[in-house]
Amino acid sequence: PLENGKVYSYNLRAIDAEGNFITDYSAVDFENTFYAPPVISSLTATQNGVKVVWGSVEGIVKFVLYRAETGKSWNRLAITDKAEYLDKTAVSGKTYKYTVRCLSADGETLLSHHNSGATIAYYQTPYITSISNTLTGAKITWKRPSGVVKCRLYYKKGTSWVKITET
């Protein structure tokens, strides 16, 4: 296996049908620095989108993040100098796959391939939009994001959450 960040030299010689050399090495060696694709360590559904986190790669200062919807091809989502990104364009109720590639410091050259990526079914977190007091209790209204079928409402008692209802 190749080592990450190590420079490797490559060259070719021609052989005949019996495996005998029929040429010398070419005059120029080709060099390449190997970088393995970053591995996504977590995908988290948040109120504001999908948080994608991956491992940093020694010697790499920029990354390019790709996203694909189920059954569709990869699309470049962002270029970043951090090993994480918040995909604010994710739509609740859709399934996405993410992958990351190493990018040169000038942002012009891809330095690694990509791996198969990581998948998440994204559902935006439901949130309370208003609370008002009534004669016998509190009226609570919330936003149920697209794709979310049910919600459980809780209240906090001390340090614990207590279920009120499921709807």
Summarize the structure.
The protein is mainly beta and 167 residues long. It is built from no helices and 13 strands.
Structure write-up:
- Helices cover 0% and strands 48% of the residues.
- With 167 residues, the protein is mainly beta.
- It has a four-stranded antiparallel sheet, with no helix packed on it. A three-stranded antiparallel sheet has the order 3-4-7, with no helix packed on it. It has a two-stranded antiparallel sheet with strand order 1-2.
- A hairpin with a 2-residue loop joins strand 12 and strand 13.
- The protein is elongated, with a radius of gyration of 25 Å.
- The mean pLDDT is 94.
Determine the strand fraction and express it as a percent band. Answer: over 45%
Helix content: under 10%
Q: Spans of 5+ residues with little confidence (pLDDT < 50)?
A: none
Could you say which structural class the secondary elements and strand pairing correspond to? Answer: mainly beta
What is the C-alpha radius of gyration, as a whole number of Å? 25 Å
Q: What is the ordering of alpha helices and beta strands?
A: EEEEEEEEEEEEE
- Main β-sheet description: 4 strands, antiparallel
Q: What strand order characterises the main sheet? A: 6-5-8-9
- In DSSP terms (H or I, runs of 4 or more residues), the helix count works out at 0
**Coarse shape:** elongated
Total DSSP E strands? 13
Distance between the termini: 53 Å
Q: How confident is the prediction overall: mean pLDDT?
A: 94
